[in-house]
Amino acid sequence: MEKKALIIGATGIVGGNLAHHLLARGDWHVTGLSRGRTAQQQRIESVTADLTSPESVTNALSGRDFSHVFFTAWARQATERENIRVNGAMVRHVLDALGPTGKLKHAALVTGLKHYLGPFEAYAKGNVPLTPFREEQGRQPVDNFYYEQEDRLFEAARKYGFGWSVHRPHTIIGFALGNAMNMGVTLAVYATLCKATQQPFVFPGSPAQWDRLTDMTDARLLARHLEWAATSPNARNEDFNVVNGDVFRWKWMWSRIADYFGIEPAPFDGQIRPLETRMQDASKQWADIAARHQLKESDIDRLVSWWHTDADLGRPMEVLTDMTKSRKAGFLDYQSTPDAFFALFDQLKAQRIIPA
User: Is the preceding omega at residue 132 within 30 degrees of 0, hence cis?
Assistant: First the structure.
């Protein structure tokens, strides 16, 4: 049977890399559903809908059937209560449109480690589990839109009879523009600004992140994990952490990123210096750099997510993830995190997003 994938958010960091991976496999037909603000990749059938509107979703998907659906997008709201209302409804609207066709075999939901840490407005305020985080540690006693999305997924799976998987990556490294949570591109732009303006390459985060162990997730590895779970009986109806498989300390990684860009890392003095407050003049500086090097994107707001990078690097505790469950189920893939950063930086240069 032909594998027909619907990717919710196919222009984002996760969905875009997933679409590229599935198309390269050769046995998938890929459709991307989005708001239509960003062009889809070539060879992807495009569907436009407002995911917050059940009528819009139903009309967009009427007469279509898919064997697999991948939820890789969310809509950030002002409060977690609103996140729950809006993002839970988005999942429900899509599954209520696809479930009655009887063709849907699997639905995959991408969330993240805020499953264990809590949402941004209650970040790490609860009884955060011991690291490394394991799937059996369960939910935190706080409002969290991830839990609402999961519940809507489980409810629809019971009602319509398809399988599901939930994927919890750590901070994702990958190519995407206009993405709200993109540390790799943010650090590339920050390093480029430091080099051009001869400013010190200052680590913006906390002593805990500087000194303690952490890990990350390459979007390409996540794409492979999503396909594996969608097609493996061992992964049916399971939740999984998904990270690269190596661990590091930022005190080690920071100098390697600096070396790539040919700049000196500033000594870390233990003070948190958020990028969002330090990059007030960055828009004009980036526009000048873009004009000088003929870059494709002169609007820095299309590239960076200062707030998200600050949140990740400013965490006051160690954040580390266990992959045993995936390994025992058969997913044995691995990705070097430094190589993931360097591959992204090389791609940004090749695409003329940052200077070569």
Answer: yes
Residue pair 189/354 in contact (Cβ under 8 Å)? The answer is: yes
C-alpha span between 212 and 116 (Å, rounded): 18
Relative orientation angle of helices 183-197 and 337-350, to the nearest 10 degrees? 70
pTM given for the model: 0.94
Give the CATH fold of the 3-169 domain.
Answer: Rossmann fold (3.40.50)
Closest CA to 282 of 256, 309, 253, 311: 309
Residues with a catalytic annotation lie at 114, 146
* Tens digit of each residue's pLDDT (9 = 90 or more) over 146-193: 999 999 999 999 999 999 999 999 999 999 887 767 999 999 999 999
Q: Is residue 101 within 8 Å of residue 158, measured between CB atoms?
A: no
Q: Spell out the residues 6+ positions from residue 337 whose beta carbon is closer than 8 angstroms to its own.
A: 173, 215, 216, 218, 244, 246, 248, 253
Instruction: Report the SS3 class of residue 267.
Output: coil
Consecutive H or E run containing 327 = helix 324-329
Residue closest to 167 by CA, chosen among 219, 225, 127? 225
Contact in structure between 185 and 172 (CB atoms under 8 Å): no
Which candidate, 12, 16, 32, places its Cα nearest to that of 74? 12
Where are the domains positioned within the chain?
Answer: 3-169, 180-214+247-317+335-351
With CA atoms as reference, report the closest residue to 166 among 153, 181, 155, 180: 153
In sequence order, what are the beta bridge partners of 68? 5, 106
Facing residues of 239 across strands?
Answer: 166
DSSP state letter for 27: S
* Tokens 């893939």 found at: 333
**φ, ψ dihedrals at 169, nearest 5°:** -80, 160
